[in-house]
Structure formats: C-alpha cells, structure tokens
Design a protein that fits this description.
Elements (H helix, E strand, L loop, with lengths): L1 H23 L8 E16 L7 E6 L6 E9 L5 E11 L4 E2 L11 E8 L2 E9 L1 H8 L11 H7 L12 E9 L6 E8 L11 E9 L3 E10 L12 E12 L4 E12 L4 E14 L3 E13 L4 E14 L4 E12 L5 E11 L1
Antiparallel strand pairs: 1-2, 1-3, 1-18, 3-4, 4-5, 4-6, 6-7, 7-8, 8-9, 9-10, 10-11, 11-12, 12-13, 13-14, 14-15, 15-16, 16-17, 17-18
Length: 348
C-alpha cells in the first residue's frame, strides 16, 4: 500500500506544480476571487452516559455534529485553474471555548491552501483524512462523535485499544479527483518531521462511488507518526474499511466493516462492524438507527463494545434541524450506559 500511495501522492505533487506553471503562462487571463464565512452550531440537552461512566444531566455542544467556524476562499487564475484555501476551527458553544476539547489546535478542523482544476484538487496543510470521510458517509448517524457507533468505535474506541491519526493530519498533502460520474479517489500523505516517536510517513486513501440508488467505498490508512500515547515498540497502525449503502426510497440501508491493526512490541487488532438504516417520515423528517459491534483482541482475551442508537431528525428549514436521540452503550465487564437527548443544529 505504501508504494502505490507514494506514487500517487507524487503524481498529485506533479499535478500541483504543473498547474502552477500553467497559471504563470496565463497571466493575461481575467481573474476573480471570493471569500466566505460559514459554520455550524449544534447544541443538545439531556442525560449522557457511556458504558462504565456516571450518568449526568447537562447541555452539550457538538454531540450530533461538532460545532465549528470556517473561512474559505478561492481565486480564478485563468483557464480552469483556481487557488483555494480554508481555515476552520472547532468550538464548544456550551462554554464558548475553542476546540472539541481543551488543548486542541485552534485551526484543528482544516487549515490548507492549494490548487483546483481539471486535474482535481490538491491542498497542503492540515487536511481531513479520506478514512474519516468514508466512515461518516456510510453510516446512518453521519459525523456524530456523540451518538454514531461508527465514529465512536473507530476514532474514539472505549475498548482499550487506541486509534491513532485523528480525523485530520498535520503537514499533509491531500489530493482528490473531481469525477462527475460519481466515483472519486482521494489520497493523503504526511511526514513525521522529526517528531518524537515518529517512525516514518503516514499515508492513506479512499475510493468512493455514489449513485442516486447505491454507494460504496474502500478506505486504507497507515499511521507512522502523530500517534500520541503509542504503546512500547510502536511501528505503525494499519486500518482498512469497506462501506456500502442502498436506497430503497422507503428505506436506506448502510453497512461498514473496519479492521485496525497496531504493530508494536505487542501486536493488537480491533474489528468493527456497523449496520444502519434511515427511514423518511413525511417531507421533512427521518428516523435513523445505527448498530455497531467493536471487538478488541488482546493477548489473551478480548473486549467487546456494542452500541445501538435510535433517533428522529426533523428539518425546520434548509439550514436548521431539530432532533431527539437515544443511545445504549455496552462494554465488557462494566455497567451499561444510556444517553437520551434533544437538540438543535444550525448551519450558516
């Protein structure tokens, strides 16, 4: 996987450089630019309890979708070439604090600059990983770190085996195609830049196909740096994922399978399966359900996490929706947890 992704990443760099040369040769072309402010605020209130934790009643920001604020812009450089940038930071609306948690970088969601054209899009900086995009796109609850079994079990597992790499990578080059026929390829790579514990470059990619009726994805990722809290003798963590969806009009089904292997002094692996469904209710509502089973294999023994989420989402407008959601969380050898909340999500 390393060799193929490295070759494709090199091709992305070449495409970016060649586009820059093309821009220099078309200085006489007219240009235009635009900058926009956008974001999302999500607030919910209710009872929150993960497996093995105390039940609390509170108001929470970003449980359905992480609240964020962003700036993006582009400039037409002539022909089909544009230069683009984005600066996006997470925020916690319940306290007015920056980041999803204390200590997170201010521009932690995305921070990049790059080129866009017929060759696709290539951006350099902090970029969202293709694995994260595949995971959120093929489960019924979407990008919810609070309630989606898929995101919780892959990116913030409670089984004791950590996932490394986060949802975005620093010092990274991201390239993705722009195919109007529905299938696209994304590639990402970054360098350890001499950071303590780094064992090399990290690489990843995905292939996705989306049609009006069905969709599919394959995602691969190998992390060799940025593994905070890595176990002794850490060398790398390899992740692969398959996902699919099918829309029957009255019912849309989702399925995912993910395997995470960590190579260290003691090798470990996690296997995550997800099944979900979304059912339209009238013109503005939908019922969503997602089940996830995560198994962490230790030596000896294993730990299982079973999570079931059921919710209702109602669109109040094109940009605003209200939701009610219940989640049951089970973990080996600890007490079950149940969360129930109502919330409001506003995009702008």
């Amino acid at each position: 996987m390393n060799r193929r992704l490295s070759c494709l990443a090199a091709a992305a760099v070449a495409a970016t450089l060649s586009s820059g040369a093309a821009v220099a040769q078309s200085a006489s072309s007219s240009s235009s630019s635009s900058v926009s402010l956008y974001g999302l605020v999500d607030m919910s209130a209710g009872r929150f309890q993960d497996a093995g934790t105390q039940r609390t009643w509170r108001a929470e920001s970003g449980r359905m979708t992480s609240s964020f604020l962003g700036f993006k812009g582009s400039e037409d450089l002539g022909g089909t070439i544009k230069v683009k940038f984005a600066l996006e930071h997470y925020l916690r609306a319940d306290t007015g604090s920056a980041g999803r948690a204390a200590g997170e970088a201010f521009w932690g969601r995305n921070a990049y600059v790059g080129f866009q054209g017929d060759f696709g899009t290539s951006t350099l900086g902090r970029n969202t990983t293709p694995l994260f995009v595949s995971t959120l796109s093929f489960n019924a609850i979407g990008d919810s770190f609070g309630f989606s079994p898929s995101l919780r079990q892959v990116f913030t597992p409670s089984t004791g085996l950590a996932f490394f790499g986060d949802t975005a990578w620093n010092n990274s080059l991201l390239y993705h195609t722009s195919n109007a026929e529905g299938y696209n390829v994304s590639l990402i790579g970054n360098l350890g830049e001499g950071a303590p514990g780094a064992t090399g470059r990290s690489v990843g990619g995905n292939w996705t196909l989306v049609t009006p009726t069905w969709g599919a994805t394959i995602a691969l990722q190998q992390v060799k740096n940025g593994a905070v809290g890595a176990p002794a003798g850490f060398d790398r963590q390899d992740t692969w994922q398959l996902g699919g969806s099918y829309d029957f009009s009255v019912l849309k089904l989702y399925a995912q399978a993910t395997r995470v292997k960590t190579r260290a002094a003691l090798d470990t692996k996690s296997t995550i399966y997800g099944l979900g469904a979304s059912v339209p209710v009238g013109a503005y509502g939908k019922v969503v359900a997602q089940y996830g089973l995560a198994t962490a294999d230790f030596n000896p023994g294993e730990v299982k996490n079973r999570t079931l989420t059921l919710g209702y989402d109602h669109a109040l407008s094109k940009l605003t929706d209200a939701y009610a959601i219940v989640m049951n969380d089970r973990l080996t050898n600890v007490e079950n947890g149940t969360s129930a909340a109502v919330g409001l999500r506003v995009r702008f």
